[in-house]
Amino acid sequence: MYKYNCLNPIAQVGLDKFDENYVKTDKVEEADAVIVRSAAMHEMEFSENLKVIARAGAGVNNIPLDKCAEKGIVVFNTPGANANGVKELVIAGMLLAARDIIGGINWVQEHEEDGDLVKMTEKKKKAFAGTELEGKTLGVIGLGAIGVLVANAATHLGMEVYGYDPYVSVDAAWKLSRNIHHAKTVDELYKESDYITIHVPALEDTIGMINKDAISLMKKDVVILNLARDLLVNSEDMVDALVSGAVKCYVTDFPTPEIAGVKGAIVIPHLGASTEESEDNCAKMAVKETIDYLENGNITHSVNYPDCDMGVKGDGARITILHHNIPNMLGQFTGLLAKANMNISLMANKSKKGYAYTMIDVDGVAAAEVVDALEKIEGVLKVRVIQ
Ligand SMILES: NC(=O)c1ccc[n+]([C@@H]2O[C@H](COP(=O)([O-])OP(=O)(O)OC[C@H]3O[C@@H](n4cnc5c(N)ncnc54)[C@H](O)[C@@H]3O)[C@@H](O)[C@H]2O)c1
Ligand SMILES: O=C(O)[C@H](O)COP(=O)(O)O
Questions:
Q1: Which domains does the chain have, with CATH numbers?
Q2: Helix H segments across the chain?
Q3: Which residues form the catalytic set?
Q4: ipTM for this prediction
């Protein structure tokens, strides 16, 4: 029997995938698995019992990845599961920036009881007139799950699209429309674009990348959209740019006291992934990853350990070992098993940066003293036996 805890509301259609071997607990300290969306986990203590954290979503900057890795807790996310929801909100954001739809609707609401509304409308409407997206240039920074969808959709709206991503994956490159211009530098993208949308994770080299220096390279009256992470944009520089008119409009999914209420800012309350479809997709993927890890030891879409998959566990025991990525670990594991006369039927070992994962199928059961000995090897972080 496994216990799971949800730190945020998680779509029921996903939780329904947990069968009678799983029970929900309100006590995070007794959970084997935690399912989370944006809840802040950096200050949390993790119990020895916790084996897996599944982020039902993309961004993992709310989770202390290294601390988890050191404690032998595998962290998953759900790549692409909410990408369409965000893509649609980016398109909506561009349309809201292009035409003063919000101002116009507010004006109608203010005059809803006015008998002259119809006549006044025809006089007033020019105050809310705008431009079209067709023929404008869009720069997309980050061509991952979301960036690719946004770039491709914008070509269908008749926009010229520039994409910039020095680390683009082969998969993403295959999905990208051939009509997208390849910006070789981000400066080229800044120079060409009427609209700029950013879809990168918050990392050391991306935090604050939209600052006054970047804005100084952009067209005057540029529209900037940030549905990725607040930290990517220097808020002080953005407020100055909106006030001076260097940036015509800033569409963001991250309300902060500095930006909310500034003229030219369209501030959305983090709704990118808040659609029924995205929430369902993320929950289903997060639960599937969790179950496969707990029951088979397989790792898919981890952000702090390598992916590693040996399929469904067979009759014998499966020993899984989370460990540091250092020399002679495999030699020590197999040496111990050989000494205990245990036969290995299947084995896999994968590494990612400083961490590694070894899965070993043995015939029969795994003797407790062998497991103890494995745990004592320097560099081993967690040993689990799935019997
Ligand atoms: N607003 C929301 O509700 C919402 C929903 C989903 C995702 N997000 C955020 O959107 C962002 C993108 O999500 P995704 O699912 O597309 O992620 P992803 O991992 O699929 O794509 C990120 C892309 O950024 C690229 N990249 C990394 N560093 C870069 C750099 N310095 N310059 C250019 N490109 C760089 C990577 O190569 C990758 O292709 C993340 O920050 C995520 O947290 C927000
Ligand atoms: O990174 C993400 O997936 C988004 O920011 C969505 O976050 P949420 O699940 O809290 O809406």
A1: 1-82+276-305 (3.40.50.720), 83-96+131-267 (3.40.50.720), 306-387 (3.30.70.260)
A2: 12-15, 65-70, 83-98, 101-110, 117-124, 145-156, 170-175, 186-192, 212-216, 235-244, 276-296, 329-339, 368-376
A3: 229, 258, 270
A4: 0.99
